[in-house]
Amino acid sequence: MTLKVGDRIPGGTLSEYIETATDACAVGPNNFNVEDELKGKTVALFAVPGAFTPTCSNKHLPGYVELANQLKGKGVDEIWCVSVNDAFVMGAWGRDQGVNGSVRMMADGSADWTRALGLELDLRGRGMGVRSQRYSALIQDGVVKQLNVEQSGKFEVSDAQTMLNQLG
């Protein structure tokens, strides 16, 4: 299966590093059921091949942090950054980028969820293993309303400004 507009997002588990304990979440990596987290929400999700990589750190994530309030003003409840990294790396990258809760840094450590979407990217030849393609998606109550998958090596359609424009 390759994800497309109109599809229901497949179930799975993503991990998020929680900085401050709450009644619901302990400090450190916490697992979240994707279906449960998407229920009744509009989520702007974007995925990157890897945390701390040049395009991801210099353009992709910063754009969503910068436009977070505008995206939320157009009806987005949450913004998720998904990468095939572990929750510790995603947490550290979020701190490094000054995310401060504007974007949920979601880890798909073994690429299981990314494979379920059909959006994996084989970078074993470059020593990076299996990663995620670069894309963005607008998800409403678990259904894909917009999907912007980049061509290999490109950063043209999955940026925050494109997502904002698609929200009207």
Backbone shape: globular
Individual helix count: 6
Q: Give the helix proportion (percent range).
A: 25-40%
CATH architect. name: 3-Layer(aba) Sandwich
Radius of gyration: 15 Å
Helix and strand content put the structural class at: alpha+beta
Termini separation comes to: 29 Å
- Please report the first level of CATH classification, the CATH class: Alpha Beta
Give me the side-by-side strand order of the main sheet: 2-1-5-4-3-8-9
Number of domains: 1
- Report the uncertain regions: none
Main beta sheet: strand number and arrangement? 7 strands, mixed
CATH superfamily: Glutaredoxin
DSSP strand tally: 9
Q: Could you tell me the mean pLDDT?
A: 91
| CATH topology-level fold name | Glutaredoxin
Helices and strands, in order, run as EEHEHHEHEHEEEEH
Beta-strand portion reads 25-35%
Mind explaining what this structure looks like?
The protein has helices spanning 34-38, 54-66, 68-73, 87-97, 112-117, 160-166, and strands spanning 13-18, 28-33, 42-48, 78-83, 104-107, 120-123, 129-132, 135-140, 143-149. By secondary structure, the protein is of the alpha+beta class. The protein has one domain: Glutaredoxin, CATH 3.40.30.10. It is globular, with a radius of gyration of 15 Å.
